[in-house]
Amino acid sequence: MVKRTQKSQNKHGFSINYSHVLPYAFIDSLKQFNLLSMLKNPIMFVVEACFILMIIITIKPDLFGPTSLSRIDNLLITLILFLTIFFSNLAEMTAKHLARAQSEGLSIIHGDIEVKRVLPNGMIEYIFTSQLEKGNIIKVKEGDLIPVDGEVIEGIAAVDESAITGESSSVLKEPGTDTSSSVTSGTRVLADWLLIKVTSEAGQTYIDQMASIAEETERHKSPNEISLTVQLIGIAISFLVVTVTLPGLLIYFNTRVEFSFLIALLICLLPTTIGSLITPIRISGFDRINKLNVLVMSEKLLECAGDIDLLLLDKTGTITFGNRMANEFIPLGSYSITDVAKMAFIASYFDQTPEGKSILALAKRYGAEIDIKQISGTPHEFTAHTRMSGIDLDNGEVLRKGACDVIKKLVISKQGKIWNNTDQIIESIAAQGGTPLLISKNNEIIGLINLKDMIKPSIKERFRETTTLGVKTIMCTGDNVTTAKAITKETGIEDYIAQTKPEEKIHLIRNYQSKGMVVGMIGDGTNDAPALAQADIGLSMNTGTIAAKEASNMIDLDSDPTKIIEIIRIGRQLLTTRGALTTFSITNDISKYFAILPAIITIPGLEILNIMHLNSGLSAIISTLIFNMIIIPIMMPLAMRGVEVKAIEPQKMLRHNLLLFGIGGLIIPFIGIKLIDILMGRFL
Amino acid sequence: MVILLPLSYLLGKFISINFSESNEPQKSRLQNIFECIEKPIYKICGINPKSEKSAKEYFFSLFWSNMVLSAICFFGLYYQNRLPFNGLVNHQLDLPIIFHILSSLITNTCQTHHIPELHLTPFSNIFILSVLMFYSSASGIATGIMAMRAIILGKIGNPYTDVIKAMTRILFPICFIVTIIFTALGMPNTFNTHISYETIENIKETLILGPVAGFEAIKLIGENGQSCFNANSAHPFENPSYLTNFIQIICILIVPTALIITLGFWLKNHRQSWIILSVLFSALIFEFITVGVLELNGNHGLNSIINSKQPNWVGKETRLGIVGSSVFEAAISNVSGSSNSALESFHPVTIALSLFNLSNQSFFGVQGFGLVFTINFILYTVFLIGLILGKTPEIFGKRIGKNEILLSSALLLINPILVLLSVVFTLNFHPIRSTSFYEHVHYFTQVFYEFASGAASNGSGLESLNDNTPYWNISLAIVMFLARYLAMGSMIMLGGSLAKKPAIPTTQATFKTDTVLFGFTFLFMSVITTTLTYFPFIVLSTLTEILMHG
Lengths: 684, 550
Prior knowledge:
By secondary structure, chain A is of the alpha+beta class. Chain A contains 23 helices and 23 strands. In chain A, the strands form four sheets. In chain A, strands 3, 4, 5, 6, 7, 8, 9 and 10 form an eight-stranded antiparallel sheet that branches.
């Protein structure tokens, strides 16, 4: 099994290690010279056509009329064109290999492995994963790889999901719950066994889909990329017209036309920087999303995510863990908090529900762990009917923990006393969205437990960032207004809609969509499924139900809703990087004109055009071509990493990027070309 | 400016109300009056003013109505000597010049290869040319308004209604007022074709007259530039004084300015209009100052001969002065083919600026189409801005997709392809017969200007080009025709494509286009896009000319 590397995300984005993919990329870049494979990138296709023309000119320099250029000069130009295409291919291939390394790590079980199918009569037969059908039941035991996506119908087992989530701690899987009864292919059973009902056919698991999508994004362009390509083609045509008409003008002026120089002019004017990096930008963007442990179902979604105007969040299971957990002990009367924790521990030991377990966990944190074997008495297990649990100790003490009304009734029936402030505390807990439980000892109520649906710790305040990205966040919950308000305040979510029914979510989304908004929805439950399907971006939690996952078009394997912020950012980053490089490409052309035109237009007196004072015409051409070529590998890391998307006002961001890439693009080539020219003069 | 802006504001508001295609129940009294005039026209032409068309239908209706009108006028011109009201002109026109006149008028270019007072009968001038001038100008306005309305209000509308309204509600009323003013200021406005008189030296001379003031009004308001006299607005009858010069400049700029103000009304965002207008006006003022300074400094070569510092008076009317000519020049090279001085005699940089304007077309530009190109550059700008900001680009709340970029790129490519190819073709296959290098250089500038002006539906020219020949007439007729209708088609389709899209609400992440930053970006994009395409050509023409002048 291929271990996936831990998240390579650091504070400044992603560190990329090229060394292990470069040799492969190198070879593939040479293969990419095939004209047919260049067709999908019109800009680079033109460059390659010019490259072929230059080969011909190198062989026969005076093919297009008399020339002063030697074969060596032409060879030099040809060589630079070759390198330009090579670097462009290298950028694309590197991105591809990096993405493949990522998805290969995922498709760990692409090969057939043996599984144990449980037949209806209870017999077990050994078959291969490819023979499995939806609805089959399989048995997995300790050490087995779970080969398919499915639902646990029997057994409890610890499952290692680190291959998917990157989290090293194991997860407990058991039947009958929303969150922990679905298993994903590629995970491994650590202990015990499970019976799993297959929910996806072989080759259609999430992992398979993800791997195939990663491959697909190498081929398909996203909508904005298509628009940009069209624009680039338009720009290319205008420069083609210039280079085609310019010789006509020069002939009219009776000046010699160097065909190779015209080719050089066209190559330098073409937006080769963005043209060669446009595919790597897309592929590496997808790679970044995969590194985030988010499964994305189509290449279009990423750009769409960047456009999200409104984000709808489900509360239970998405923002919160989805089950109530003990949050605090509140002692009454003369009892200390440790006393209450101890009593709660003993009384809850006989409660097998998650809530009971959470009380034990909280008590442990107070150091109130007690070895229950040293206590002798008659246990009373928790049942849905009694709604309490506890123990009658042999020394006559009666400990109980349970719902408020039953405990109160119990205490009253024993003529015990209830503290005055008990009801007050009960009410205040309820008002904050918690569920109060009472603990009684004999005929006395000694304290309360506050059961709360806990907000996932990663979320705190994080959603405030969405506001700065210009995305409005709304939380939907069935809770009352007070609870909803408390949660939005804690998480940084802008707005809430309290006491919503599940079916209202979908109407809400439709309503916003009809106003032209792009709506994102994050949910995990079966009742969220319609809304997830309706939303433009439906992100479901990996802990969610199968229905929710199927309805959504993105799945977060770590079940961390704040990842949407990162997803939106990466979506925008795709466009920003393209925009920045396009701006750079276009503004570069001004200085390139100033460098090349004096070399081409040799009318006496027009030397003043040579404002950069380049050595000679040939030197100017070669320097500009080299600059044009070298800028591709220089910009490659930027394209792979993406231009930083800051959570600042659009005006500020535009100003910043325009200054950086627009003005930068205007000045840098002047310096770069001049430097190369000086170096050339030194060595040639 | 002080006078222009309030007038444009009123007109802009008026347009925004009258062309919005909304079914508001209450109408002002003015609207009722206009409707009374228009109803019979609709009846006669069999138009249902309320019927919405698709973008494709809109374009073809407009196109064919243009063609039918041209066909009728063709016969009118061909048989002009047999028609009444001949005046002093009594000969048949050649086919090439007729094609050129028609193509140049129907495309609102009004490039004048003929000499109006010699070649055309007063009948042709009044009943054919002015009809064409009105109609082509109205078609231009309709295209601009349609594109704007489709993008902002999502309505395509009816081409006939738009054209008729453009005539009845914009062109006729303004022309009426302007004619009265011009007549009052001393322009002749009469159906008498000429007066003969004897000079003091007893030589019989003929002064040609005509409805000059009326013609002048539509020439300027409609951005036509077709005039009664060859000398255009330099002719004393066409532009008698400083005051008329001033009014003429206002007339040229009023409709384009108003259309951009309409944009603000429809967007319910006046800031947007002011930002665009400030960009356009600062470009105009920059040009005016450059031209003014260059001309006031005078001709370096000439001044060194006469050994004094004189402004460059060559080719300018002393009546209007250097400043008057310069302002006019700055305005016209952007907008229309009128002229009050011989552009040829201006400094090469002035000509370069004009060439730039003709290539760019968005700085006010020709009637309606200037708006079209402005919108197109805005689209181009917001596309890049959208990418930089990481959100799918949008123009006035409509998302820009592949289709829009395709049409927008086409719109930007039409002009360079037509102009550059035809310039190079002409230079090499229809070269100047001269051995002088200077004339070679200047011929290039002339040819370049001629085609650029034709493709931009502008119509001005460097007039020493002997252009009333079959080659020039036919080649320019084709260029003008293609440039006009390809651009019209692209823009109408672009409008139609955006009209279908839902408007998206503005959020915090939406980039606001009514800001100074946008203004700068827009100016930058517009300038750089044009510069990149035309750089070698403009540089070559200007630099070589400067080189020649020393």
